[in-house]
Amino acid sequence: MLPRMSSAHSRRRLLLGAAGLAATTAFLAGDPQPAATTAHDARPGPKAPTPGPSRPPTLPPAATLSKPVFTLAGYREIVPGPAYAADAVALTIDDGPHPVWTPKILNLLERYHVQATFCLIGNQVLGHEGTARSVARAGHHLANHTYSHPTSLPKLAVPAIRKEIERAQDKIYSATAYAPRLFRSPGGSWSAAMMKQVAQSGLIPVDWTDDPNDWKRPGTASITKKLLAARPGDILLCHDGGGDRSQTYAALQTVIPALIARGYTFVSL
Ligand SMILES: [Zn+2]
User: Which residues, chain by chain, have CB under 5 Å from ion ligand 1?
Assistant: First the structure.
């Protein structure tokens, strides 16, 4: 059974704001030099990883799954490793990097020593390479969330799906020297052809257990309540990109210390 899906059909419109439009224009122009960066981006910091070659390592094809991973237990069935602690939860943060909200959330995570998984969009990394690097530098894990966030990804032709995955992988890697091993589809939309393509790219398809619909800005209280309903083993979804994420940020300021106080341990995928 698939997890609860976000009905994120208007996500693409949200993402095609001024920054998204500029990035899309740049994409159409053939991915030229990044646009002007923020002051934050201009200071990569002393511990910034040195970006490697622009092409990420080729990953061996993975087994094609019938459904995406959406719990920690499901993740461990696919990715071998030590068992997660019984009280573990994973926080995943989608649609960035964003020059305003990503640094705020990074500071919050650092304050509570929480590791998360950031699902980056390639054309949002474009122009915000320094922000993307700061996510990797802080020790968080990165996932591939496509190049342009098409919510109808399963309906695209296979070569277009492959291009969305590969361009994002290239952009994330060239900015951060981190080669994602996970793939999250926009809006949690999947198809058998997509699953096959994700596997051929060597990536693990990942969804979520708990979706507070924070991108719809339902109010901080609503986001907080839904995230506080998390149980051990869950994968939590929220967003740092795609618009004004002040509600998400405010909710996380409550949710993270509350879940820690409950005895939960945050892990990255
Ligand atoms: Zn998304």
Answer: 94-95, 186
CA distance 177 to 183: 17
Q: What is the pLDDT along the chain (269 residues), one digit of tens a residue?
A: 444 444 444 444 444 333 333 333 333 333 333 333 333 343 343 444 455 557 888 888 888 999 999 999 999 999 999 999 999 999 999 999 999 999 999 999 999 999 999 999 999 999 999 999 999 999 999 999 999 999 999 999 999 999 999 999 999 999 999 999 999 999 999 999 999 999 999 999 999 999 999 999 999 999 999 999 999 999 999 999 999 999 999 999 999 999 999 999 999 99
How far apart are the CA of 260 and the centre of ligand 1, in A?
26
Ligand 1 centre to CA of 46 (Å) is 30
CATH number of the domain that residue 183 is part of: 3.20.20.370
Is residue 163 situated within a structural domain? Answer: yes
Full domain range(s) for residue 180: 60-267
Active site residues: 94, 239
The answer to whether residue 99 is domain-embedded is yes
Q: How many residues does the chain have?
A: 269
Residue 33 lies in a domain: no
- Among candidate residues 186, 192, 210, 181, the one with its CA nearest the CA of residue 90: 210
